[in-house]
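Annotated sample (chain length 301).
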Amino acid sequence: MSFMSKIVECVPNFSEGRNLEKIEKIVQPFRGREGVKLLDCQRDEDHNRCVVTVVGEPEPLKAAVLEAMGAAMAVIDMRSHKGQHPRMGAVDVVPFIPLKHVTMKEAIELSRQVAQAAAQKYDLPIFLYEESATAAHRRNLADIRKGQFEGMPEKVKQPEWKPDFGPVGIHSSAGVTAVGARMPLVAYNVNLGTANLGIANDIARKVRHLSGGLRYCKAIGIDLKDRGIVQVSINMTDYTRTALYRVFELIRIEAKRWGVPVVGSEIVGLVPMEALIDTAAYYLQLEGFKTEQVLESRIYS
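Output written by the structure step:
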């Protein structure tokens, strides 16, 4: 990838977080490919999900994503899939994010090309979401995914939930997929020192925008059974308008009402540097601090 190349980020989520051999087959199309660079692959056994972060030039990235989708469909059977994270397909969601010399309009067009090609190649029903959505009620991924894999056969029969591409019905083993273009998203989880899932669900309702909480914040409660704790799993859809420290502090305040401590938090996948700088500046009470003061930002700018 040259300095002047158009660069797009893609963060596909696959419904497999336990079998390393299967995950490697899914990720392989992103390795050693000219014009594409694999940045990260993060898996979670409780969620039974892996999140891949890859960047590349539009055409080679498109080819790699399509190949990885096929690889996932070959090794994942949703009929036997179990996990804590909501899911509706083997390739659950494929977002494209414009990074360099790429407009949102171009990212939308790329998402449509991938969706159409995948539907034709794999006989896979696909919804367009976020900036690529063809209707207002399809923008929100949570609305599309509602019902999950088990509820999709009946859902797609409804005229308002007919897939944008592919058959009217679900793929027997791979379910359905959402493809779209969006701004950078921060996947952020906060772990609570309790095994009571009801507490995590209550706090998630308090912090998410849909229930009257923070703007640009989506949240659900997750049971981490292997660790004996629960989690508030969060997607921050615009970290520049709602900072990470705000959702963390609100969760801590609500947890105190239950007498429950926050025992840790985690970033899933990669995160924009500014999201962490903003949070560090808040907790350190830095006055007038700017991103330009970070050494690495000056070196690589």
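Annotation: The longest helix spans residues 104-122.
Annotation: DSSP finds nine helices and eleven strands in the chain.
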